[in-house]
Design brief:
10% of the residues lie in helices and 60% in strands. With 62 residues, it is mainly β. The protein has one domain (3-17, 29-61). Strands 1-2-3 form a three-stranded antiparallel beta sheet. It is elongated and about 50 Å long.
Length: 62
C-alpha cells in the first residue's frame, strides 16, 4: 500500500461569543483555526486527521 494523495484544508471556525484565554492576557479570540488532512492510498483507503491551528508545513507537504 502506498500513499497517492495528501491534502490539507484550513478552516476558521467562528465562536458564537468571543473569549479571552486566561493563559494569554490581552488576547481576544473570535474563532478557532483548524486544519483537516486527507490521505488516500493506491488501494482506495482514505484517512482523515485534524490539528489545531493552520500549519504551513502540512500544506507544503501536501
Amino acid at each position: 500500500m502506498k500513499i497517492t494523495e495528501v491534502s490539507a484544508t484550513d478552516l476558521e471556525i467562528p465562536y458564537k461569543v468571543e473569549y479571552r484565554p486566561a493563559w494569554q492576557p490581552g488576547l481576544v479570540r473570535r474563532s478557532r483555526d483548524f486544519t483537516i488532512i486527507k490521505i488516500v492510498t493506491d488501494e482506495g483507503v482514505v484517512g482523515y486527521s485534524g490539528t489545531d491551528g493552520h500549519h504551513d508545513l502540512i500544506r507544503r507537504l501536501a
